[in-house]
Amino acid sequence: MKVFIILGTRPEIIKMSPVIRACEKNKVNFAILHTNQHYSQNLDKIFFKELNLPQPKYNLNVGSGTHAEQTAKILVNIEKILLKEKPDIVLVQGDTNTVLAGALAAAKIHIKVGHIEAGLRSYFREMPEEINRILADHCSDLLFAPTKKAKEILLKEGISNKNIFVTGNTIVDAVFQNMKLAEQKSKILKELNLQKNQYFLITAHRAENVDNQERLKGILKGIEMINKEFSLPIIYPIHPRTRKMLKEFKLSIPKNIKLIEPLGYLDFLLLQKNAKLILTDSGGIQEEACIMKVPCITLRDNTERPETLIVKSNILAGTNPEKILKSAKKILNSKRQWKNPFGDGLAGEKIVEIIKKSIK
Ligand code: UD1
Ligand code: UDP
Description:
binds uridine-diphosphate-N-acetylglucosamine; globular; Rossmann fold; six-stranded parallel sheet; 48% helix; alpha/beta; binds uridine-5'-diphosphate; 16 helices
């Protein structure tokens, strides 16, 4: 059996890492194909190093571009490699352009596709990821749903029960596998002069937020109001997309907000774990906050992670500043006593087991 693991961005490297570990442990013959949709050192190489991942066999050097450019370049290049390598199955994770192109290229030449984190829906089609995840799910043969809820969504869309497997989300594995190391190695709290539970952490990078001047302004105003209300440091590791858009809109970050470069996984895990509150529009961070029992405010009007709303680890605040502040006060007044709905940390192992049984 030959497995091809396709990845391209920061969250895919992190969330594929437990699957790669499980392949190594189970002596599965696998190769990594990196599209290099992300290429900056701190969105890419740092994770291979910290997570101790083998180097990709193929690197497409696709880089940035419009949706069509990025998706098309990946499609054309992956097809050539898949025709040469003839793997038994291609694995993709999540909802990026890399995922859509990888799944589509493989399905069209009759190579089996396994989609990890299948069945997530925000029901908001303006989000590029929503199109990617729907299409990837519908050209996949094995759908690894993180929760029962995700499985129900797939069933409702007509996907056959026999192709869906509820495994938990590999992000739980990644958090469990790396937290101890983060605690031993990371000096980030000291470096940033922070006390445990005495600071807020924010990230924002979604296209529908940061490419929209009004929404981006709303987020910035919201964190300014939070800073005034609580008088605690706010740390903001800024995604390059957001930095670019701040410049384009000539917007500046409110003073007292500490802007830093994107961090490696160990530093970022520790920073999340010890935050009083996380404000984010990231998918993975909504999950990690929930897993680490840190309250989360989501700077969006919808989420494909409704499990976090159900267990009350997360509130959807959108980008209205008053609503952001109100939501922060509300969640800080509630207890951190929810249960993690995303699995037991063995998703990577389960996925590899299922693949071994499905492909002889
Ligand atoms: C992509 C994914 C998004 C995911 C995010 C993770 C799509 C449609 N979007 O968004 O789902 O949540 O990755 O972070 O697939 N840039 C750099 N260095 C890099 C990569 C990007 O400077 O290594 C800058 C470039 O200016 C680029 C911009 O960020 O134009 C956006 O990059 P892109 O890969 O298109 O989308 P992301 O916003 O990173
Ligand atoms: N992350 C990181 N350093 C940072 C910001 C995020 O390591 O400075 C990690 C975070 O822990 C999570 C993942 O990146 O596992 C989330 O990626 P991102 O928010 O870029 O994408 P999304 O999950 O929204 O697709």
